[in-house]
């Protein structure tokens, strides 16, 4: 049986050229980038070369890039770093990743006032509502660039303009957007942006927070001066090297990749439309990432469909991998106004570098029979899952 992987928003295969550079790094000298001797200088050169590559991909200065262990840590550093400098009010959105929402819940326990805004049925934030929610105590607004479950793109430029006019900082979780859709940290009115390596063909366990000049964050770890003293600890040098190469490669083929994946996604959705007239594409009304399709199949349990397709060699998701086993359906779809049954009956297809025409045709061929079997068996709505950063 040929395996078909359609869960690229959860994680991506590591690119061959990334593996090669990481192996060379692992096989190289023993230096710590903080050491002053020759071995340390060699390690430091590798780190800074990777920083330059990530910065070039994000279209910002290298000094803006602070390496972390991934998107979750980058989100935490942004939110907690602002709050612990005296931020009394933070505004965010109900469809954010758990790495933002759960951090905000924790900050509320420490006395930070949090406003979580609803979204329209399309999954898009109402910017007028955002502007009205900002008050004199607001220190930060956090709105993700692209949603990990639906691929919905938020009006980030407009959000940033509102924040600039109100004099508050703007953070965006750009993990799902970076390397898949055009993104310029310099050109966008964003003060802080979280990005991650393993969403773009790099290794797991490394990411970065992009920080605009003049933004004052309090470090959340202590014990060293690495990464401008904002993220102390000996750096994961092989991971950072891999991240740098992955960022370079992702941006180099971004335009062609987006066009190819968008066409494949449209073919998949057209195939679904012909056999499931009652289906719904969640977030399909507006702008989305070209690789993502979140589909509601009426009367079919999404988790049961995931398992059945897995048995056929097709890997998909019901939401995002961080909350696997959660008792509640997707909070993203619920925030978009979907019922519990609709949310539980939804699955996400996310395409990537290895996805082929024949993969999509095979899914379209297999899906009707699998879905019909489950519908006839009377499966009930179950649970949803979430994406590790």
Summary tags:
389 residues, Aspartate Aminotransferase, domain 2, Aspartate Aminotransferase, domain 1, 7-stranded mixed β-sheet, 2 domains, alpha/beta
The CATH architecture of the largest domain can be given as 3-Layer(aba) Sandwich
Q: How many distinct folded domains?
A: 2
Proportion of residues in extended strands = 5-15%
- Calculate the mean pLDDT score and round it: 93
The tally of helices reads 12
Anisotropy-based shape:
globular
Along the chain, the helix and strand elements come as EHHEHEHEHEHEEEHHEEHEHHEH
Radius of gyration from CA coordinates = 21 Å
How would you describe this protein?
This protein is an alpha/beta fold and 389 residues long. The protein folds into two domains: 133 residues, Aspartate Aminotransferase, domain 1; 237 residues, Aspartate Aminotransferase, domain 2, CATH 3.40.640. It contains twelve helices and twelve strands. The strands form three sheets. It has a seven-stranded mixed beta sheet, sandwiched between helices.
Summarize the structure.
The protein is of the alpha/beta class and 389 residues long. It has 12 helices and 12 strands.
Helix and strand topology:
Blueprint: E1 4-5, H1 16-26, H2 38-58, E2 65-68, H3 71-83, E3 89-93, H4 98-109, E4 113-117, H5 127-133, E5 138-142, H6 156-166, E6 169-173, E7 192-196, E8 207-211, H7 237-252, H8 254-275, E9 280-281, E10 292-296, H9 302-311, E11 314-315, H10 331-335, H11 340-344, E12 346-350, H12 357-377
Parallel strand pairs: 1-11, 3-4, 3-5, 5-6, 6-7
Antiparallel strand pairs: 2-8, 7-8, 9-10, 10-12
Helix pairs in contact: 1-7, 2-7, 3-4, 8-12, 9-12
